[in-house]
Amino acid sequence: MVVAGKDKGRRGTVLKVIDEDGQVLIEGINMVKKHQKPNPNAGVQGGIIEQERPIHVSNVMLFNAISGKADRIGIKTLEDGRKVRYFKSNGEVVDV
Predict the structure, then answer these.
(1) CA distance 60 to 48
(2) 26-42 CB burial, b ≥16 within 10 A, e <16
(3) pLDDT tens, 39-93?
(4) How far apart are CA 60 and CA 27, in angstroms?
(5) Is the pLDDT confidence value at 95 over 80?
(6) Exposed, middle or buried: residue 24 (CB in 10 Å: 0-12, 13-18, 19+)?
(7) Rounded distance, CA 95 to CA 82, Å?
(8) What global pTM score does this model have?
């Protein structure tokens, strides 16, 4: 769920994580129009196309289905030694 910017309040699935920049690419979020030149050798048609652009990870939070809104997460270790993420508001485990 996006918590800041022009798409604030919208939800989408993360398609790609760009580690070196601290950014994520989210499906249907931060859509921009790009003017693309045709390239017949590569089979690329020219025109104006819409594509997703990455947004910073600090502007994104996990969506909590129980509360119905974005929620902060924490990391805790279970009895069997596994590390899992959990929602801070209700303690529900995200990773199973």
Answers:
(1) 28
(2) beebbeeeeeeeeeeee
(3) 999 999 999 999 999 999 999 999 998 888 899 999 999 899 899 999 998 888 9
(4) 13
(5) no
(6) buried
(7) 10
(8) 0.75
Pick the CATH number of 1-60 from 2.60.40.10, 3.30.43.10, 2.30.30.30, 3.30.470.20: 2.30.30.30
CB 30 within 8 A of CB 55: yes
C-alpha to C-alpha distance for 73 and 19, rounded to whole angstroms: 19
> What's the rounded Cα separation, in Å, for the pair 55 and 8?
12
| Cα 96 to chain centroid, rounded | 20
Q: Kindly report the three-state secondary structure assignment for every residue of 47-89.
A: EEEEEECCEEHHHECEEECCCCEEECEEEEECCCCCEEEEECC
Residue 78, both tokens: 């279970």
Give yes or no for residue 13 having a pLDDT over 80: yes
